[in-house]
Design goal:
Homodimer. By secondary structure, this protein is of the alpha/beta class. The protein has one domain: Rossmann fold, CATH 3.40.50.12640. Helix content is 51%, strand content 11%. It contains ten helices and seven strands. The protein has helices at residues 9-24, 31-44, 51-66, 76-93, 106-118, 163-171, 186-190, 199-213, 218-226, 230-239, and strands at residues 70-74, 96-99, 132-134, 144-146, 155-159, 175-179, 193-195. The strands form two sheets. The protein has a five-stranded parallel beta sheet, with helices on both faces. It has a two-stranded antiparallel sheet with strand order 3-4. Helix 7 (186-190) links the parallel strand 6 (175-179) and strand 7. Helix 3 runs antiparallel to helix 10 (230-239) and helix 4 crosses helix 5. The longest helix is centred in the middle third of the chain and has 18 residues, at 76-93. The structure holds ligand PTJ. The site of ligand PTJ has 25 residues, from helix 2 and helix 4.
Length: 245
Amino acid sequence: MIPKSHPRYESLLLRDKMVKAAKKGYLADSAMIAHGRGEAFDYLIGERTTYPAKRAMYVAVAALLLSNNPVISVNGNATALAVEEIIELANSVGAKIEINLFYRTDDRVKIITQIYKDLGYDKILGTLDDDIEYLTDIKNNRASASKTGIYSADTVLIPLEDGDRAEILKKSGKNIITIDLNPLSRTSKMSDVSIMDNIVRAIPFMTKIAEDLKTQDKQVLMEIVNDFDNEENLKESLEQIKLKE
Ligand code: PTJ
């Protein structure tokens, strides 16, 4: 057990979640590397939610609430770190949840499906028995998507997504929202709304924002979305990275 008094308590707790998930067998082989890269960026922003990230989250939630078929895409890392919070956000903004794995195997899909089911979430998409379509002419796993989920979605929230899949989603004309601690990643650069924050802080914060924005007129939400400049916001995000004490 990690003592709460430990100066790196929060960070160690997340590592512990990742280790347990790896033991359960549903993480990608490179999941720990991705987590470590995220940790490094988080360290450099002071492990806090920055102002540009908050601004992007308001825009993201407004976009999700305005969408006809919003979908939250989940992979191994996102499930390990924030499964309950993801279900709460999905319920709050009326989004579907779809398993969307970069390194897809039947075993991993089975375990992740069961994790959501055990938490009472039976509607998960992207399962082994779901109807699959392809977002490109090339029928490979990178481009696969659930027919009623990502394939027909107008807005997709992709936390911790690899650049290749993000590109396929973007090219298929969808509105892409990402949560990625690396503001220089291909995914952050090509998304419509890029939230440079840790998924464990961002998702619950977005649920809080949703409770507020749900009471607003459509017009107000549209203004929030239209006033946003992702490139400018990413520049501001990058400025939050401190290399000196
Ligand atoms: O479960 P799968 O098969 O879909 O695979 C998942 C990973 C994450 C292994 C796969 O998508 C991958 O290789 O992703 P990348 O290309 O390493 O990108 C992950 C991005 O997420 C990197 O830019 C990291 O900085 C960032 N990241 C890592 N941990 C977090 C994070 N962003 C937000 N919160 C985190 N906790």
